[in-house]
């Protein structure tokens, strides 16, 4: 059961790796408008399930803390991420924001029944180094003039790691509530869009395809899979393995001609893959350990 849930969590990481490709192909739609549209699309699978099985509507009745955590996690992360990118260079802001997998691994020590081992931290740090090679391929330069953007990026990392860790504490809450989180995030993003941005719609059918792909996968199904994974799977392995997302994203961009291959990608592959395998040491040991013979 735990292995299956962890693999479902891996599916979320795989879907997030398509985020950059779909975003690059989605045209010039401003970020909050894109967020509003994509989260509306992302809520459709959950709404379909509720429509086909109305009895599940009762599962949406949850304490306020569950709703606050979910909405703050999904909307708060994207609001802070967009704010960081508006107020700091994308390389530095992205690197700071991507501290969240390491924060999940370290923070998991505070969860009931979890123990933090040296290989969890080492695996996460290896993934961080691999991410650094990918993100900072053209150099990195932290400038105090961008303090607001850096601060937003750091809050972004704490927001998503905090959401993921708190979600583990709500393991009895059905994943159906993610539908409500997506709808609320869509509405809040729409409010931000109307107040801060100019509306720009996709210009071609291909751009619409990319927007729909975003909504169905990295900004849709991925959140349902992540919710199930962190609640029922191995959150430490998922945290360390999350560093595979920027690596896979870069490989996909390279495959589709949006990026050039380099030695950095090869070395990042070794660091991220090796780190994920190291962090997953317990899972592999449980799988290959022979059963104890009955006396």
From TrEMBL:
Protein name: DMT(Drug/metabolite transporter) superfamily permease
EamA domain location: 6-135, 149-279
Keywords from the named record: Membrane, Transmembrane, Transmembrane helix
Lineage, uppermost ranks: Bacteria, Pseudomonadati, Pseudomonadota, Alphaproteobacteria, Hyphomicrobiales
Single GO cellular component term: membrane
Membrane-spanning parts: 7-26, 32-52, 64-84, 90-111, 118-140, 146-166, 178-196, 208-226, 238-256, 262-280
Top-level taxon of origin: Bacteria
């Amino acid at each position: 059961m735990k292995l299956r849930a962890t693999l479902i969590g891996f599916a979320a990481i795989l879907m997030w790796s398509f985020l950059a490709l779909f975003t690059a192909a989605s045209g010039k739609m401003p970020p909050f408008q894109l967020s509003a549209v994509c989260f509306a699309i992302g809520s459709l699978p959950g709404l379909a399930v509720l429509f086909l099985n109305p009895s599940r509507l009762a599962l949406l009745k949850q304490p306020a803390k569950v709703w606050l955590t979910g909405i703050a996690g999904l909307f708060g992360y994207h609001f802070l991420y967009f704010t960081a990118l508006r107020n700091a260079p994308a390389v530095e802001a992205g690197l700071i924001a991507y501290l969240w997998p390491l924060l999940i691994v370290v923070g998991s020590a505070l969860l009931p029944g979890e123990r933090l081992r040296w290989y969890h931290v080492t695996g996460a740090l290896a993934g961080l180094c691999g991410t650094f090679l990918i993100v900072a391929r053209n150099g990195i330069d932290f400038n105090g003039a961008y303090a607001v953007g850096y601060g937003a990026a750091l809050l972004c990392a704490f927001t998503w790691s905090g959401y993921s860790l708190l979600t583990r504490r709500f393991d009895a809450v059905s994943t159906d509530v993610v539908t409500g989180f997506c709808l609320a995030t869509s509405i809040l993003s729409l409010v931000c869009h109307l107040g801060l941005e100019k509306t720009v719609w996709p210009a071609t059918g291909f751009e619409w395809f990319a927007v729909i792909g975003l909504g169905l996968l990295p900004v849709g199904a991925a959140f349902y899979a992540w919710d199930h994974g962190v609640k029922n799977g191995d959150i430490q392995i998922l945290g360390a393995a999350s560093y595979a997302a920027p690596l896979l994203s870069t490989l996909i961009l390279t495959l589709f001609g949006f990026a050039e291959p380099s030695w950095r990608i090869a070395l990042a592959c070794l660091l991220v893959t090796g780190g994920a395998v190291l962090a997953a040491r317990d899972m592999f040991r449980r799988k290959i350990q022979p059963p104890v013979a009955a006396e």
